[in-house]
Design brief:
The chain has 107 residues and is an all-alpha fold. The chain has one domain. Helix content is 67%, strand content 0%. It is built from five helices and no strands. Helix 1 packs parallel to helix 3 and helix 2 runs antiparallel to helix 3. The longest helix has 26 residues. About 11% of the residues have low confidence.
C-alpha cells in the first residue's frame, strides 16, 4: 500500500469511519492500534531506505499521529457523559514542539 493511500485511510479513520468506539480503551483494540503504529513506522523506515527525504517522512509520521490522536480525542468526547462532553467542548488539542512543526521522528 502506498503512503498516500494509507494516509487517506487514516484520515477516514480519524473521522470515525473505521476506528471502533473502544479503539484506545479496549485492550484488544488498543493492541491493534499499537500494531498499526508499528506498521506505519516500518513503512516509513522502508521509505527512508528507498531514499525519500527525511523531512517528508517526519511530516508523514506527524500526519499519521494526527489521525490517531484526533480519533482518540473524538472517542473521549463521544464516550463521556453529558458533563464530560460539555467540559471537553471548551478544550482543544494542540500539537507542540517538533510534532507541532510536523517534524515528528518515526522512531
Amino acid at each position: 500500500m502506498c503512503h498516500d493511500q494509507r494516509y487517506r485511510e487514516l484520515h477516514l479513520m480519524s473521522a470515525g469511519n473505521s476506528f471502533t468506539p473502544t479503539f484506545f480503551t479496549d485492550p484488544k483494540d488498543f493492541s491493534m492500534g499499537l500494531h498499526v503504529l508499528q506498521e506505519e513506522r516500518e513503512i516509513l523506515q522502508h521509505r527512508l531506505i528507498e531514499g525519500v527525504a527525511g523531512g517528508e517522512v517526519t511530516q508523514a509520521f506527524s500526519d499519521f499521529m494526527d489521525a490517531l490522536l484526533i480519533a482518540r480525542f473524538r472517542e473521549v468526547i463521544q464516550q463521556g457523559n453529558a458533563g464530560v462532553r460539555a467540559g471537553w467542548q471548551q478544550c482543544c488539542l494542540v500539537a507542540m514542539g517538533g510534532y507541532g512543526r510536523r517534524e515528528l521522528a518515526p522512531y
